[in-house]
Amino acid sequence: MVIREIRIEDARRFVDLIKRVESESDFMLMEPGERKLTVEQQIKRIEGMKKSSNSTIFLAEKDEELIGYLIAVGGTAKRNKHSVYLVVGILQQYRGLGVGTKLFQQLDEWAIAKEIHRLELTVIQRNTSALALYRKMGFEIEGTKKHSVKIGDEFVDEFYMAKFLPTTGEGEKSLLTGMEGVFISVKSPQVSAKWYEEVLGFSMVYQEEEAAVLRIAEESQTVVCLVKTENYQPMQFPENYFGVGKYYNFIPRDLEKAYERLVEQGVQVNQIDGEGNTRFFTFYDPDGNPLGVCGE
After folding, report:
1. How confident is the model at residue 172 (pLDDT cuts 50, 70, 90)?
2. Burial class of 207 by CB neighbour count within 10 A (0 to 12, 13 to 18, 19+)
3. Residue 46 and residue 118: Cα distance in Å, rounded?
4. How far apart are CA 93 and CA 243, in angstroms?
5. Cβ(91)–Cβ(140) below 8 Å
6. Which 8-state DSSP code applies to residue 116?
7. Going from the N-terminus, what domains does the chain have, and what CATH number goes with each?
8. Tens of pLDDT along 183-200?
9. E strands, the chain, where?
């Protein structure tokens, strides 16, 4: 599964996703079939958000299918630009599988980088699964919006919920926002790069005699740099009592499929292991470097 910001070309699929989510849920504002949003209207909204510093849309995508979204709409006045209102929707078959958690984790990274201070939303009082997710992600109830919506013949209350993020000078703020690249020692950058392209699907950024740089995926900012080293030895993590035996863990689109594909291509792969909802395994590149895969 991939969490990413929306692109203009996603407009048609995003409109279909919104309408499908609304048709499956009793807790969205719009009833099934009520929304008249067109692709052209959605394109304009996406274009407007791309120009905004405090609004965006995150999409959850699995096997090239959009399965969830998180819309963040920032305030337009100077006095409320620090505040963002949220709307979340996930296809019914993917609820309870960690999609919402990953959407909110990505939102937090974006919001902190944008110096957003307040995240807010409303939720139907009896939507217990959504309430559990929001509390898990740090939201607290601020008040009750009495008879906020009418579902069928019944007036239903909503909760106001909010979460506060640290701003400059408020608590500790990370100096760094992500990982630009990782460096892996190899015997021959040219030979190893071909394997990383053909087996792992990485894409070449540039290559020279002493090194090759590849991008992990189109939507990833992280690159892998394969560096030629003299007196080559495979990477070996120092002995420890934490059970760590490698330096890097990659995030798979689908852990099971990644494992099966590596096995089919004759890659040396250890068995899948796990703790709780997290599973992982180790595989080895042609130079014997241990590399990890970790996901749900």
Report:
1. low
2. middle
3. 22
4. 35
5. no
6. -
7. 2-164 (3.40.630.30), 181-295 (3.10.180.10)
8. 999 999 999 999 999 999
9. 2-5, 56-62, 65-74, 83-90, 118-124, 140-151, 154-164, 181-186, 203-207, 211-215, 223-228, 249-250, 273-275, 278-284, 290-295
